[in-house]
Amino acid sequence: MLWWYKLHIIFLIGIVNLCESSGKVRLVDVTTLTLYRDKYTTGRRSASIPQIQCVGGSAKGKFEPRVVQCYNRGYDGNDVQWECKAEMSDQYEFGEIRISCEGYEYPNDPYILQGSCGLKYNLEYSHDGQGNYDKSKKVPNAPPYEDEYGSFKLSTVVIFLLFLLLIYCSCMQPTTGNDRTRRSGWGWDQGPPPPPGNGRPPPPGFKSFTRPSDAPPTYEESFQNTFGTQSQSSGPGFFSGLGLGGLAGYMYGRSQNSEDSFFRSRRPQDSFWSSSHSRDRDDSPRPSTSRTTSGFGGTERR
């Protein structure tokens, strides 16, 4: 009966050792790790961690692979080296990676807890992805037609004001004394007064300075006053109107140029097959395709 008890004790000790070593694995014996997004590692001495975890890089948070498979590429004298592969957009690629595993008894234990390994990686933009990222960061300038359209409206207002100023100057032109005499004495349409003596020449010895002060002007005086006043009054008004008209014409021509440039700036966008549209399409971010990317790194213990 004694041997029977000894056999039971040995059996129990074996079961205990088997249970204790069921999750204990030598790290160098691990050849492949398959890790999944939204799953966690096992933990005995420490808390579980995500199997796939992005910890940095220029594209951190932009993309996360669904599945990553890592391969043991050998021992470098310090620890196991890994190559990890994943299917991801060609806009991104792995940066620095490392496999984090929990030591079974302590962090640097050559044995690890089975299922405790997870991937920590940096996500970087690829060459194509970096170009698209730079283009997306550019803040578009204000469309050129806005400035042109603003100058067009300003020129229109200036032309309108000049036109009103021209009308105002024409209406408010000051009148001379001769104009008032013509308006009050003879009117605008009656013409000059008839010469004295019913058209007959004055008698011999007649002098104009001997006329009464309130006598109407002679034909010669009326003729000279009429045309002299018109020439004097029309001089400044004519040249001022000419100057304002020239300025208005200049501003109108400028507004027409602004309007033409306004429509020219918009016209290339209206044509889908125009060369400018092709340039815009070349500058826009290109659609991404999927590919397998690899990253290399070592092991960290926890």
From TrEMBL:
Pfam families, per the entry: SARAF
GO terms under biological process: calcium ion transport; regulation of store-operated calcium entry
Membrane topology recorded in Swiss-Prot or TrEMBL: Single-pass type I membrane protein
Bias kind Low complexity: ranges: 226-235
Compartment list: Endoplasmic reticulum membrane
Signal peptide feature range: 1-21
Annotated GO CC locations: endoplasmic reticulum membrane
Region (Disordered): 177-235, 258-302
Keyword Ribosomal protein: no
Comp. bias regions, Pro residues: 191-205
Record keyword Transmembrane present: yes
Keyword annotations: Calcium, Calcium transport, Endoplasmic reticulum, Ion transport, Membrane, Signal, Transmembrane, Transmembrane helix, Transport
Coarse class of the protein's main subcellular location: endoplasmic reticulum
InterPro entries: SARAF (IPR009567)
Family statement drawn from the similarity comment of this UniProt entry: Belongs to the SARAF family.
Listed name of the protein: Store-operated calcium entry-associated regulatory factor
